[in-house]
Amino acid sequence: MRKFTVWVVPPVLALLSCGTSKKLEKAMADNAQLQSQVTALNQKVTTYEADITRLKEENLQYGKEAQECREVQAAIERNLQQMNDALAANSSTFRKIRDRAEADLEQLGNAGATVTYDQGLVRISMNDRLLFKSGSAVLSKDGIDALQVIANILNEYPKLKTYVVGNTDDVSVRSGFKDNWSLSTERANSIVRILRDKYQVDPSRLVSGGMGKYNPVADNSTPEGKALNRRTDFVLNPDFSRLWEVAQEQQ
């Protein structure tokens, strides 16, 4: 009996080929998708690495700026300490000047003078009876002697500057001067001339002026008040140059 062989391989192969093709296509699609994801991830990695590099650089810069800030803060604190030291030194010096002026005036028996220290300034006030005759800008002998107290202090402390300010009561001047303002100004001028000519005080450290009746310390309605207002003020100013230098260093 003759046998027939039926070849079914091609259809099977075709079926197998068809299934494999679909799987291959799916695999290729999956691979393409994965490749796209890898590319996207690589881009993110590149971005993150760039961000990390930038942040490191910024962190380094911030560290430098922080160090600079600490150095500036330290410099400011040093300068403030120097200013405080200078202020303390001025305060100590001016208290010594106040005590010395009080003692020297007391030795001269000048009851018409007062010495105060306030807000970093020494103020010496001398009654007009101690310095001048009524209505006059010519210094008396006692007045010239009293000025030696001022001169000695100024010559011992060569950086001090002094404002000499004449003051009067509100009674109109009778003769020789236009008004009390003129009288008070000329009295201050007479004083700085004596300090310069007799006691060799550097005139560049002297400032004179008059306030007339416009700077009272008491009520002009009473004789006692008028007497207190007729005075000459000596305002001793400290050396602010070191404080200025320190302030400039902070800028």
From TrEMBL:
Domain OmpA-like: 119-240
GO cellular-component term (any): membrane
Alphabetized InterPro entries for the sequence: Bact_OuterMem_StrucFunc, OmpA-like, OmpA-like_sf
Coiled-coil ranges per UniProt: 24-86
Keyword flag Membrane: yes
Pfam families linked: OmpA
Keywords from the UniProt entry: Coiled coil, Membrane
Top-level taxon of origin: Bacteria
Record's keyword annotation contains Membrane: yes
Transmembrane segments: none
PANTHER family with a match to the protein in the record: LIPOPROTEIN YIAD-RELATED, STATOR ELEMENT OF FLAGELLAR MOTOR COMPLEX
Listed name of the protein: OmpA family protein
Organism of derivation: Flavihumibacter petaseus NBRC 106054
